[in-house]
Design brief:
The chain is an all-alpha fold. Helices cover 68% and strands 0% of the residues. It has a domain at 58-91. It contains two helices and no strands.
Length: 98
């Protein structure tokens, strides 16, 4: 059973700056987290993960890096967005989502 909360137009507009700042913060956090995970998972001593155009890496390693990065970014984005919306609701009494 879902208890969907509707947002007013003013709540959506007021939340935009919060959403932008939290998105930037989330990207920075996800990037740092991914680099730390890659240091432990990667097959060599390089700190940076492989890019798709780097010929010295095999397809599996490039694919693993892409999948890990995508999963980490998605998880961090979800946590940051959800917590930001909850904090906004506590501060204003309105849910910022649709």
């Amino acid at each position: 059973m879902s208890t969907e909360k509707k947002a007013s137009t003013s709540a959506k507009i007021l939340y935009r700056p919060v959403g932008i700042v939290s998105s930037i913060l989330g990207g920075l956090i996800a990037s740092m987290l991914f680099k730390q995970v890659w240091k432990r998972v990667g097959s060599d001593d390089k700190a940076d993960p492989p890019g798709p155009l780097q010929s010295e890496y095999g397809f599996r390693e490039i694919l693993l890096a892409a999948v890990l990065q995508g999963a980490i970014y998605a998880a961090v984005k979800s946590v940051i967005n959800r917590q930001g919306a909850k904090a906004f609701e506590r501060a204003t009494g309105e849910w910022p989502g649709s």
